[in-house]
Amino acid sequence: AQSVAQPEDQVNVAEGNPLTVKCTYSVSGNPYLFWYVQYPNRGLQFLLKYITGDNLVKGSYGFEAEFNKSQTSFHLKKPSALVSDSALYFCAVRDDGGSQGNLIFGKGTKLSVKP
Amino acid sequence: DGGITQSPKYLFRKEGQNVTLSCEQNLNHDAMYWYRQDPGQGLRLIYYSQIVNDFQKGDIAEGYSVSREKKESFPLTVTSAQKNPTAFYLCASSVPGNSPLHFGNGTRLTVT
Question: Which of A71, B36, B50, B90 is the most exposed place for a label (fewest CB within 10 A)?
Fold first, then answer.
């Protein structure tokens, strides 16, 4: 069975410091991995995805994520956090044999960036 | 601008009443999805449709129904059989393959 875990309910970072939001996954085949961001009372916005190729994926708003097959992880990173990055972040995964209807979301990590 | 429109933004209903949430997209996407979001539980798939006149149950379909008569529209009915209907409901769409989902801004349903 597919699963995705975001081990931290909340991450607190000072503005200007690097941030990491963690995600680990379990799939039966090759993973397709996604990160989304959600601002209060809004839908989710796509940040980046890993399908194949380079393990370091660059996305919107200066975010990037590193795919690590041996550790089954896909952590979201940003070199310098902004207060406006404060939001709820979701990791999602499915295996390459399924469809988007098989996409599994993590429970979300609340990122709080303080000035 | 292309996008997904969910209406209404807030919806209040009495227990025992059916209610229908609207989702319309002008992105020309074939696939559409309904998710339910509860605090601390992430998103759970209710129903999805990959093509007009066809749809599949997701992980938590009990107490919900959908229709897909038009490519642009995928309404969700929350029936009285749904035990805990109060939640934030998100509609999404996508093209086939590895493309990301495009989400609407959600409908917050409160049933008392």
Answer: A71
